[in-house]
Amino acid sequence: MTAEQAPLLLQIRRIAAGLLIIAAIAFASFARDFLVPAVFAFFIAITLRPLVRALSRRGIPAWATTAGIVLIAVLLVSLAVFAFAGAISQWIADAPRLQQELMQRLASLRGTFEGLIHISHALQEAAAPAAEGPQEVVVRQPMLPTVFSVVAGYPLNVVVVASGAIIIAVFLMASGDLFYEKLIRVLPSLADKKQALRIALDVEREVSAYLLSITLINAGLAICVGGAFWLIGLPTPHLWALLAFILNFIPYLGPITGLACSALIGIVAFDSFGHAILAPLAYAALIGIESQVVTPAVLSRRMEINAVMILLSLGFWAWCWGIAGIVVAVPILVSFRVLCAHVEALAPFGEFLSQKHAPEDHPGPG
Cα–Cα distance between 342 and 362 in angstroms, integer? Predict the structure, then answer.
């Protein structure tokens, strides 16, 4: 290759890489119905893979371990349904009444800011041009019924995705190390085999450690939230514990949603403003302790990811896969970071994903 051809070849490679990225994004959006349960199944299987492998070394076959895991999961789900079904049904039945009470409480708080509201209306009327001709009257329907109607159709989709993910995950776990054996067999050179196996095992170890750690942290947070809400006197504290456990899997957006919901339900459940604000204050305090103290202490520094990249990942996967994309955005980011650590060409991307280096990582001169 001549010196004149090298820049042209580099440009062609860059264009091909850009087209490949665009094609991958289009495929991820187009094949959403297939990829979402497959990705969830991959993360479920990869989280439990160390347990399956450890028991396999003790002579217990992978299919037997998988059957035990499925049995335990069925028991836990049955207990959860028994514990939470009544409270959830009661919430759904009380939704119209709670909405009406919330509107009434917010209307009663309106008097506190009545003066500011009158000033705002006066400024708007002064700034608006004089209307000519008949005025159009628009009757706006409340937003909450629309939200409830949208959410009401979502559980069916969740059940379908979860069922598909669990079935695929069961087959992945029951197959043992078959995937790794096939991966080694198809690669040509010994160096490629070692590199591929090293990447696969590191992704498995890092993602499994991350997901297990986050699950345990969220379980501890759920217990604390349920206990705090029980002390405050909030109705169905065990249901709030479940909600906190689920929402905390979504970085940033989940805690904000939980905080807003606790504030709204506090306004409905309690008469005085001072009592109502205890719920969001307790939730905010527990989330702050979890995010600033517990999670950094439990997760190793190599698992920490740049907050900006987490937000970008959440935005991208939310656009691509909706709520399911928000849930798997961070595990995908962790997997990609492990891949970047092993592939030299992806090292710059890994640097962007990492947190700021500690001071000892950059010693000064002398």
Answer: 22
Average pLDDT over residues 292-297: 83
CB distance 174 to 63 below 8 Å: yes
Helix (H) or strand (E) segment spanning residue 231: helix 190-232
DSSP letters of 157-178? HHHHHHHHHHHHHHHHHHTTTH
Token couple for 346: 């992806």
Percent of the chain's residues with pLDDT above 90: 7
Cα–Cα distance for residue pair 316/37, rounded to 1 Å: 18
Tokens of 93: 């039945």
- Of 38, 12, 41, 42, residue with least CA distance to 27: 38
Whole-angstrom distance, CA of residue 70 vs CA of residue 129? 67
Q: Per the structure block, which two tokens stand in for 248?
A: 């905390």
- Which neighbouring-strand residues pair with 354? 305
- Please give the structure tokens belonging to residue 345: 């060409």
Residues 6+ apart with CB under 8 A from 322: none
Residue 66 has a pLDDT of: 87
Structure tokens at 1: 């290759």
Question: So what's the pLDDT on residue 267?
Answer: 80
Cα distances (Å, whole numbers) of residue 96 to 102, 155, 261, 270? 10, 19, 16, 18
> SS3 breakdown of the chain: % helix, strand, coil, rounded to 5?
85, 0, 15
pLDDT at 148 over 60: no
Taking only the tens place, the pLDDT of each residue in 210-254 is 888 888 999 999 999 999 999 988 888 888 898 899 888 888 888
